[in-house]
Amino acid sequence: MTAQTGLAPVAIRAPQARAAAEVTPEAAKVLPVLFVRWQLQFTKCSLQCPYCIAEWTKRPVDFRPDRFRRIVDRLLEQPYRLVIRLGVEGEIFLSPEIQEGVIRLSHHPKVEGISFSTNMMASDDKVAAFLDRADCGKVGMGCTIHDTQITEEQAEGFFRRIEMIQKRGVLVFVGYVAKPDRFDYMRRYKARLDALGVPFISNEYNGAFEHVPYPEAYTSEDRRELRQFLWTDHYYEMLVERRNPKGKPCLAGHRYIYLGSDGKILSCGNDRNLPWNLWQKAAWHLNKQWPARIQARRVRRRQLGNILTDDLRLADAPRRCPHTSCTCGNEAQAFFQVGEEYHRTRTLRVIYPKSRAAELEARYPNLKPLEEGAWKRS
Ligand code: SF4
Ligand code: SF4
Questions:
Q1: Which domains does the chain have, with CATH numbers?
Q2: What are phi and psi of 120, to 5 degrees?
Q3: How would DSSP label each residue in 215-252?
Q4: Is 82 in the pocket of ligand 2 (CB under 6 A)?
Q5: Which atom of ligand 2 sits closest to the CA of residue 319?
Q6: Angle between helix 96-106 and helix 124-133 axes, rounded to 10 deg
Q7: Best of 37, 235, 258, 270 for a ligand 2 pocket test (most atoms within 8 Å of beta carbon)
Q8: 7 to each of 3, 34, 195, 269, 333, how far by Cα in Å?
Q9: For position 5, what pLDDT does the model report?
Q10: CA dihedral of residues 231, 232, 237, 239 (deg, nearest 10)
């Protein structure tokens, strides 16, 4: 059997038998790890950041609690241990259903890690109530500080909650966008978070700033500092230097999948954003609707089915990346080589170099490696 990916055909393997959702911790331990990025389209938020890439004010909420619960059930039926990252596309602490799903997943023996991002504007009590019910040893949180959108008092509340979350054992990190005029703030945040034992992980600024395109326009001095703000050399190379991943072995479609809110499965998120081919460019001159239809067909051809209705069929081995950029931190970790040089963790976004493991684990006490090569098992 072959996968319809638009790539050279690759062998795919149907699971021998559907593993029951209920499984003992001992039985779960022998299963290979599958990394899952799952977008939820819960487009509701407590902030209105002008730079919001989720554009939650402009997009309809496409979150259905019943479908969400069914997808959780289906994920737990798969013959894998799971490291899941939820892309909420809004604010998780506005959704009791998503919090409930995270709590349930965190207690399941097949789940190694369940992480999500949040603006951490929920009250101390609300966050504490969630942590009381979750298995914090499996939870990861990426808390983005939107300091230009909140008051100083709110920012202090943010840091107070970060400290509380850290003390509960969650693998929490603070995210930020490395806007060219915010380097002073990044220095201060990194120092403050280092003192708490919490990683600070910036993303590159992507787009025009004062009419100049970034990340291309970062100066060499900016770049020297960005290496530490981006957390690892690998992220710096991919997100700031924009290294071309084409042809490099990757876990996407093998031990990593991208799951849409409707259950559709792709190897990685880049399969949704294919650059136009020659047909589309030519079609544009004849009918403005045609390129979008061709695009939808091309994306459909890359789909690996729907988790709600189909057995998960994954490639037998890592495959070569067909794309020319990989600029999402949650995806860039899927590179095969990352697992050779870095420890992966229960928080999809957080990896750290094996060569500095002892030093980093001492500085950031909630950093713990996933079992070595757990994604290599068959
Ligand atoms: S907190 Fe995140 S989701 Fe909410 S408006 Fe800001 S960027 Fe968008
Ligand atoms: S390297 Fe990135 S873009 Fe390429 S297949 Fe892997 S996840 Fe997708």
A1: 12-267+304-363 (3.20.20)
A2: 50, 40
A3: TTT--HHHHHHHHHHTSSHHHIIIIIS----TT-EE-B
A4: no
A5: 5
A6: 30
A7: 270
A8: 9, 21, 47, 15, 21
A9: 41
A10: -40
Output the pLDDT for position 348: 96
Which ligand is nearest the CA of 148, by number? 1
State the DSSP code for 346.
Answer: S
Question: What type of residue is 338?
Answer: V
- Ligand 2 atom nearest 246 alpha carbon: 4
Record the pTM: 0.92
- How much distance in Å is there from the Cα of 253 to the middle of ligand 2? 9
Is 92 a pocket residue for ligand 1 (Cβ < 6 Å)?
no
To which residue do tokens 């506005």 refer? 94
Nearest C-alpha to atom 2 of ligand 2 is from which residue? 326
Among protein residues, the one whose CA lies closest to atom 3 of ligand 1:
90
pLDDT for the residue numbered 275: 83
Contact call for residues 10 and 316 (beta carbons, < 8 A): yes
Q: How far is the CA of 59 from the centre of ligand 1 (A)?
A: 13
Any idea which ligand is nearest the CA of 120? 1
* pLDDT at residue 21, rounded to an integer: 63
Strands (E), the chain: 12-13, 33-39, 81-87, 111-118, 139-144, 171-178, 200-204, 207-209, 212-214, 249-250, 256-259, 265-266, 314-315, 319-320, 342-344, 351-353
**Is residue 293 within 8 Å of residue 279, measured between CB atoms?**
no
Residue 52 Cβ contacting ligand 1 at under 6 Å: yes
CB contact set of 207 (below 8 Å; sequence gap of 6+):
213, 214
Distance (angstroms) between ligand 1 centre and the Cα of 369 equals: 30
Which of 326, 274, 280, 281 has the alpha carbon at shortest distance from 5? 274
Residue type, 168: R
Per-residue pLDDT at 7: 41
Q: Please tell me the distance between residue 95's alpha carbon and the centre of ligand 1 in angstroms.
A: 15
Pairing between β-strand 212-214 and β-strand 207-209 as defined by DSSP bridges? antiparallel
Averaged pLDDT, groups of 10, the chain, 378 residues long: 41 46 86 97 94 86 95 96 97 98 98 98 98 98 97 97 98 97 98 98 95 97 96 97 97 97 96 87 88 88 94 93 95 96 97 98 97 87
